[in-house]
Design goal:
This protein has one domain. Helix content is about 15%, strand content about 55%. It has a 14-stranded antiparallel β-sheet. A hairpin with an 8-residue loop joins β11 and β12.
């Protein structure tokens, strides 16, 4: 066999291999419906505890509904995100937030139009949507999905909030086994990166065993105010 023919056959093999690899798509990680119950503790002038119920369910229009409900004797919070997923990317479509504390209400709403790459908030302020933009709730699901597909280290997401886009960043602290009402859970621990001089500190723990569902969250202010949740039940 001549060197010329040998070289030609090698090229054919290489092109065949490249063609085969091109046909193999990257794995797509699906989100799955679940319900989780957390114990919530808030220390903010008034100290009280309550229950956070989180659910991810398929809506009748084909979208997903990601929803939080916190209730106590003094306050209640409802937060929801209607969303879809495309190529491992969460796409929020409608965000809603309602807080009631001692009879006082606070509302926030954002509608996303991905065909126009714009969003409109409750005050009718319109603003552009960069690729990958999340709302104040959906980013937690995107974090979960990214951890599920093996992303580690640093995380950054554009967030639509109050008529503008800001970036939220997390850094991986490491792995940690934490105690919960469900027993000891092995987790990936992330810290919200607000900069070196930040007075507010936030940590989130994601359960490795439970598809990286949030296991616990803890936020502490410079003045001692704090908010925390711990996973109590998951189904």
């Amino acid at each position: 066999m001549s060197l010329k023919n040998s070289h030609s056959q090698n090229l054919i093999k290489e092109f065949s291999l490249l063609a085969l690899l091109a046909c193999i798509s990257l794995p797509s990680y699906a989100i799955e419906a679940y319900q989780a119950t957390y114990t919530a503790n808030i220390k903010s002038g008034l100290s009280f505890s309550g229950t956070l119920k989180r659910s991810l369910s398929k809506a009748s229009n084909g979208q997903w509904l990601f929803q939080d409900k916190i209730s106590s004797m003094l306050a209640s919070i409802e937060e929801s995100s209607n969303l879809t997923m495309d190529n491992n990317q969460i796409l929020p479509h409608k965000y809603h937030y309602l807080r009631k504390v001692l009879g006082k209400k606070k509302k926030r709403d954002i509608d996303f139009d991905w065909s126009k790459k714009t969003a409109v908030d409750r005050d009718k302020t319109s603003f552009s949507l960069p690729l990958g933009t999340q709302d104040s709730l959906s980013y937690q699901l995107q974090l979960q999905l990214d951890l599920q597909r093996g992303v580690r280290g640093n995380f950054s997401y554009p967030i639509a909030k109050r008529g503008a886009i800001s970036n939220i960043k997390f850094v991986q602290v490491g792995r940690e086994v934490i105690d919960t009402p469900m027993g000891k859970i092995d987790t990936i621990k992330l810290k919200l990166d607000r900069g070196a001089d930040a007075k507010r500190v936030t940590y989130i723990w994601f359960s490795i065993k439970h598809n990286f569902v949030i296991t616990a969250l803890q936020q502490t202010e410079a003045d001692g105010k704090s908010y925390s949740i711990v996973l109590k039940k998951l189904s």
